[in-house]
Amino acid sequence: MLAYILRRLMLVVPTLFGIMVVNFFIIQAAPGGPVEQMLAQIQGTAVSATERFSGSSSGGETVNRGSSDSSGTYRGARGMPRELIERIEKMYGFDKPMHERFFLMMGNYLTFDFGESFFRNKRVVDLVIEKMPVSISLGLWTTLLIYLVSIPLGIAKAVRDGSRFDVSTSTALIVLNAIPGFLFALLLVVLFAGGSYFKWFPLRGLVSDDWSTLGLIDKVLDYFWHMALPIGAMVIGGFATLTFLTKNSFLEEIHKQYVLTARAKGLVERRVLYGHVFRNAMLIVIAGFPAAFIGVLFTGSLLIEVIFSLDGIGLLGFEAALNRDYPIMFGTLFFFGLIGLVMGILGDLMYTFVDPRIDFEARG
Question: How far is CA 72 from the centre of its chain?
Fold first, then answer.
């Protein structure tokens, strides 16, 4: 197993490099780079997010992004001194060719130097650390609760397959799965956060303003008080798929020969289910925990963060994409890509933990 882990770790470097290459050149080719953003701010013609998505502009010339050629022009650069444009290009590093910028960036990343944000005047590492508590809170608790709800419910549905309980819960899960999580979030705001009915929970923030003055127990209670609605919205909108996966995995195992043999030996049903079936049926479910956590942590919480005014990684990445804040975009991509690849290795380790019979070294 050690040799397999070492091989996987060695593959992390070329895989991560490939991810960065593809994303770097795609993002660099997109219009509206940081130089144009600065020119728009100087001229007071910066466009809104809606205008960017619709592709509208205030007029101007064709983009020639990142070129050090003095004849290169940017949208909104008409009538502006070439010396000013060259100073802005140098400030953002666009006075160098694209390939040189890429290898310079990757060289810095080898020492975990992710640079400084173009528009926030902070180091990328500091920004990520500042936003991480929100994203970890949403990702960790949501994933844990989804698993705690989905696995028992999926097992109960498998044992009662075809019963009224199975049919009714399946109908409810299909309906819940068809409704986006952000709609549940809006509903919870209306019902419980002072929207129209009750004001039982706060609408914004990870903790209260006076959190630092509270005792330990009060701090914990205040934290979960603020997290209740956003986590609830994400759990309600996210546990249907895992529940059906658990049910189908159990149904497949229940009808296998070794289960019939165990029952024929006189073993009680609980022993059959949790002593024999559970390990095999839960293999794909439990081993997928790292990937599920990564998915919720980095991709599933943007709208929830916006609705509940939670300043996390999702909102940071979204704003960086709109502003073409390349250090944040590429820095977080590198960091999260690395985490995702490591989590993939952890997922394989969890396979062997759930079922020790699995041996990746013995694969043909």
Answer: 37
pLDDT in 10s for each residue of the chain, 364 residues:
777 788 888 888 899 899 889 988 888 777 777 777 777 766 665 544 434 434 444 443 333 444 333 334 566 556 667 777 777 777 777 778 888 888 888 888 888 888 888 878 888 889 888 888 888 888 888 888 988 898 889 888 988 888 999 999 999 998 888 887 788 888 888 888 876 778 888 888 888 888 888 888 988 898 899 888 888 888 887 788 888 888 888 888 888 888 888 888 887 878 887 777 877 777 777 767 776 777 676 665 777 888 888 888 878 888 888 888 888 888 888 888 888 888 878 877 777 776 676 666 665 5
Residues 89 and 164 placed together within one structural domain of the fold: no
Q: Do the domain assignments include residue 103?
A: no
> Any idea what the CATH number is for the domain that residue 326 is in?
1.10.3720.10
Structural domain count of the chain: 2
Residue 169 and residue 62 in one domain: no
The tokens for 346 are 């952890």
Listed residues 51, 77, 97: the one ending a domain: 97
Structural domain harbouring 232: 129-362
Q: Which two tokens stand for residue 171?
A: 């109908």
Do 90 and 164 fall within a single domain? no
DSSP 159-207: HTTTSHHHHHHHHHHHHHHHS-HHHHHHHHHHHHBSSSS-B-S-SS-SS
The DSSP output letter for 245 is H
CA dist 108 → 20, 112, 149, 327 (Å): 13, 6, 43, 11
Residue 205 shares a structural domain with residue 89: no
Answer yes or no: do 170 and 53 share one domain: no
